[in-house]
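Long-time lurker. I teach an intro course on protein structure, and each term I like to show students one example going from raw sequence to a predicted 3D structure in token notation. This year I'd like something fresh instead of my usual example. Would anyone be willing to generate the tokens for the chain below so I can use it in lecture? Attribution to the forum is fine with me.
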Amino acid sequence: MIAAALPVDTRFHMLQRMLEIRHCEERIQELFLENVIRGTTHLCIGQEAVSVGMAATIDAPRGDTVTCTYRGHGHALALGLTLRSMMAEMMGKEAGCCKGKGGSMHLTDMSVGLIGTFAIVGAGLPVTNGAALAAQIRGNGAVSISIFGDGTPNIGAWHEAVNLAAVWKLPSIFLCENNLYGEYSPYETTAPVPNVADRAAAYNIPGVIVDGQDAEAVYAVVQEAVDRARAGHGPTLIEAKTYRYKGHSRTDPATYRPAGELEQWQARDPIHILAERMKADGQLNDQQFKQMDQQAQDAVQEATTWALAQPYPPVEAAFEDIWV
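-- Reply from a regular --
Happy to contribute to a lecture. Here you go:
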């Protein structure tokens, strides 16, 4: 699919946000190795186009919501979570979006529509249906997007959620980031169908495949699904073909990948695809791109420095924000 060119300001926003996500993820990896960030981290380097393409369709003031996986830093930033809030949460600081209690895998900011990133595979899908059902009852035209990986359609919660959304025609959009590997297992060794989108037929809903390296293509497909959901026609299953440059988590060297595979995908880097298209259209030159890249690096470093200076939450905060 060749998507129509987006307005130049939208293109610039997407490109700047992808650069920020890329540099933020790279800095997070460094901070983990420095023992500043503890626990585990799952980086989305290489998958940035899915994040910005999806986020451009979301209208948080209207009530649109998003749930996603533990590989959710990029989605959170694309939706509008600030770099300061992100970095502080990564470090477990009180100024983080979840007051330092969530960390890498549990990011929430309802002001930008992010219900949460979920550490449990598939846990976000039923929550997305709940948000979609609430929107359906209220009649406000809001939608809810659930983002998941290519391993998730093999678990029961995925089938239950997609089935229920199809039966009730919920305004849910199911967006799969197929990065070829479910943790360490190649997709084709764990699924009986060649594409995740093929599974849509079983639920009588549209199944669409999109180039996950092309931000504009992702936007076009997700926007079509959003429009369909807002009109009351129910859910869509979207499969974005993408690739993570790093291993599954922070210590995975990804030695299971065939030689040359990483390089093939890096040749279709999502940042460069959009940048080169803008250059070809006379909207961007090399100097402007370098300036944007430097601005992103500076913004990430500023947020890092700020977050490092923030206090950790007090011990008694462990007893706040809980259900009894």
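Some talking points for your students: The radius of gyration is 19 Å. The mean pLDDT is 96.
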